[in-house]
Amino acid sequence: MSITIFKAGILDSLQDGGRYGYAAQGINPGGVMDSFAADTANFLVGNSNHEAVLELHFPASQLFFKEDALIAVCGADLTPTVNNEAIPMWQPVMVKRNTLLQFLKWNWGARVYVAVQGGFKVQQWLNSYSTNLKAAAGGHSGRMLAKGDVLPLRNTSEIIAKTIPADKDHLALPWGVLDKRIYDQPEQILILPGPEWMLLDNASKVALTTAAFTIDQRSDRMGSLLNGPSLQLQEPMEMVSSGVDFGTIQLLPEGRLMILMADHQTTGGYPRIGSVITAHLPKLAQLLPGSSICFNLTDIAAAEQMLFSQMRDNSIIERSCRDHLTELYARH
Fold it and tell me: How many domains does the chain have?
């Protein structure tokens, strides 16, 4: 029971929700960049959101299924196909053994997630499946996926072969996630003032919330470097390194901004002038280099309300998907 990497993509890896509790040892959480897409993919195939998923970028890896599997593809629209036939996204799809999952064309977004029912049979490192490249640990041998890699699966469902028509290689199940408002207005990002917000001069505070910034080509899973107006502190200062997190906005010495992403370091010595609210991290994660960003200030109460609303919606998605799968299995 396995998937083989038939052709390698660019910076593709196994990830989960992250590796928490080890920042004191200098080990960052890592994990998926877009938690909404990754969680939804897992829910659609009946997994918990703690299972590992494949995080792929365009051009993405080609995946050869050696066994029948129930999969879901969520996140960026990279035109997924099974044996050259289009399959839907945000919907569970049964695939037969000896089929090839490919991503043929970029349409939208930066990264796509593939979940498989039962999850991947890989070892955890410090309670997480996520790939940590700097430590060369977690995921698949602590590295990006390469051609010929074999990813074992935990189990396969016997009903797949019975359910898919004999003349078909796959079958999309008749339910999915239609409401993806989380990605609406992708260029509009809400932020909270950071610990060093008050150290900005007045002109920089205005520029931060009125100007447009562009994501630099050098951005990656560690951070999104922004091009835009140069921001300044009221007075030059040196800082003691302090804790940082996914979404922390740092002011670099030359006046540029860096938004720390999933593979961020555990501490930083640059002023933390703001933080992207957790509810907007998924849509930030789907922005490609060259995309424009505009920041708007909000408060903790509003940020919490948005996050709780997303968490409630995720719970509804998870319960609904499990009910659908339970009903499917009961009929077989």
Answer: 2
Which residue, 20, 52, 17, is CA-closest to 32? Answer: 17
Specify the 3-state DSSP secondary structure of 284: helix
Same domain, 257 and 189: yes
Residues 192, 220, single domain; the answer is yes
What string of pLDDT tens digits covers the 332 residues of the chain? 799 999 999 999 999 999 999 998 889 999 999 999 999 999 999 999 999 999 999 999 999 999 999 999 999 999 999 999 999 999 999 999 999 999 999 999 999 999 999 999 999 999 999 999 999 999 999 999 999 999 999 877 778 878 888 889 999 999 999 888 999 999 999 999 999 999 999 999 999 999 999 999 999 999 999 999 999 999 988 888 889 999 999 999 999 999 999 999 999 999 999 999 999 999 999 999 999 999 999 999 999 999 999 999 999 999 999 999 999 888 87
Q: What is the pTM of this model?
A: 0.96
What domain range is 246 assigned to? 184-298
How is residue 283 written in tokens?
A: 């849509």
- Among 37, 218, 176, smallest CA distance to 112 is for 37
Mark which of 182, 206, 239 sits at the end of a domain.
Answer: 182
Token digits of residue 131 = 């790939």
One domain for residues 68 and 142: yes
242's tokens: 């302090």
Regarding whether 10 and 109 lie in a shared domain, the answer is yes
Last residue of a domain, one of 182, 209, 232: 182
Regarding whether 136 and 273 lie in a shared domain, the answer is no
What sign does the dihedral 151-155-158-162 (CA atoms) show? negative
Is 265 within the bounds of a domain? yes
